[in-house]
Amino acid sequence: MCRKRNFPFWLLAFGLFLYSCKSSKPVVYSQPLPQPKTETKPEQPVKKDTIPVKSEIIKATFSVIMPFELRDNFAPVTDETAEPSIAPNSLSALHFYEGCMMATDSLISAGKEIRIKAYDVPSDSVSLKRLLGNPEVKASSAIFATLPNHLVSVAANFAEKNKLRLIVTSAASSEFLQGNPHVVLSSASTITQCRLMVGKMVDLYPGANIILVWRKLRREDELAAVFRTELVKLKGQSGFYDFNVQDKGSDVVINALSKTKRNLIFVISSDEALVNPLLNKIEEAQIAETVISGLPTWINFESIDFMSFNNLRVHVFDNNFINYDDPQRQEFRKQFIKRFHDDPAPAAYNGFDLTLRLGLGYTGKEADLTNLLERSFNQKDVSFRFESTPSGGRENKSISVLRFTEYKLEKLR
């Protein structure tokens, strides 16, 4: 259900790009009182190398190209009595931008003045190239972009030819990174997430009886192929069961359950109407500590009470998990609500993290995007593990394995 919120009409001020500035008023000083004369000692000469040098403020511009849906959000109002609302598809972009703005405030104390300019995503490749070729965009120290899948490779190719610093926030695949050091993927792609989940689950539950469950539907079939490939690498061709339940029915899964070993079942479906009865049937088999590995979409399931299962451990994965119990996250949320009068979405935390870390690392002397990443992100950081592809750009290969426990998600690793 989409939530309504008053549209932030300050957004109109940026005219597709926006930033804020502060002004100051002249201060009037009163006439000082006359002071009695005192004997002064001659000043000692100060060596030039002991004079403190005022640190120079480092300035930069970060561009944000995302679906702000300006055409819909600024469409003429036909019903004057209707409550103003924001196009649902633009909320993530808006929250990312607002997170960036929160980070610029924090960077001021570090001597960094970062301007954020925002642009609506064009609908076609020609318009996208024209936007990326805009002198102001090309001169940006970093460009954040959330694009439709069919435009990601277009932007990546343009960035390579023009040596831009392009940071794509999400993508289905990371193939566009190959041979391109001018582009980075800030969140693990869908395919990378699936591959990483297989490795993490097999590592968490060694020696388990593994079952892969899917249906012959396009999306499920494609994702199942990724899981299957990784399982073959780790367990061999005969190291797991592989069931198309659309043809064979769910009973084939029950019959494959082991009573002597822990069962690890990868369920490759986002269809709540399939997952719900399947999990209930596995629960009824009463085989303790059966582990279910689901997809990120399960977090939004409404008809399944994952805490009601006695025999199942349900796991999902996510590449943008927010630990709301963390004091720093709690403070960010508090300040965000105070400033923007809305609860921050995950995109807000993402925009804040990326802008803050890149801003702190930026000196203006970085040779390229790779150099900026190395300066900005610690190799020990579990949230940002930018790893190079075999021949080019970098992808953040960090995901969180989550388990439903006590009516919340607990991060396992």
Note the main attributes of this structure.
alpha/beta, Rossmann fold, 7-stranded mixed beta sheet, 34% helix, globular
Question: Topology, pairings included?
Answer:
Blueprint: E1 58-66, H1 70-73, H2 91-107, E2 112-120, H3 125-132, H4 135-138, E3 142-145, H5 149-162, E4 166-168, E5 183-185, H6 190-204, E6 209-214, H7 218-235, E7 241-244, H8 245-248, H9 251-256, E8 263-267, H10 272-284, E9 290-293, E10 312-318, H11 327-340, H12 346-361, H13 369-376, E11 386-388, E12 394-396, E13 400-405, E14 408-411
Parallel strand pairs: 1-2, 1-3, 3-4, 4-5, 5-12, 6-7, 6-8, 8-9, 9-10
Antiparallel strand pairs: 10-13, 11-12, 13-14
Instruction: Compute the number of structural domains.
Output: 2
Tell me the strand order in the biggest sheet: 2-1-3-4-5-12-11
The major pleated sheet works out as: 7 strands, mixed
Roughly what fraction of the amino acids lie in strands? 15-25%
CATH T-level fold name of the largest domain: Rossmann fold
Structural class: alpha/beta
- CA radius of gyration is 27 Å
**Which H/E pattern describes the elements?**
EHHEHHEHEEHEHEHHEHEEHHHEEEE
CATH-derived architecture of the largest domain:
3-Layer(aba) Sandwich
Number of helices: 13
The averaged pLDDT comes out at 87
CATH C-level name of the largest domain: Alpha Beta
Notes on the protein architecture:
The protein has 413 residues and is of the alpha/beta class. The protein has two domains: 55-72 and 85-187 and 320-398, Response regulator (Rossmann fold); 191-318, 3-Layer(aba) Sandwich (Rossmann fold), CATH 3.40.50.2300. 34% of the residues lie in helices and 17% in strands. The protein is built from 13 helices and 14 strands. It has helices at residues 70-73, 91-107, 125-132, 135-138, 149-162, 190-204, 218-235, 245-248, 251-256, 272-284, 327-340, 346-361, 369-376; strands at 58-66, 112-120, 142-145, 166-168, 183-185, 209-214, 241-244, 263-267, 290-293, 312-318, 386-388, 394-396, 400-405, 408-411. Helix 10 links the parallel strand 8 and strand 9. Helix 2 (91-107) packs parallel to helix 12 and helix 6 crosses helix 7. Mean pLDDT is 87; it is low at 9-36.
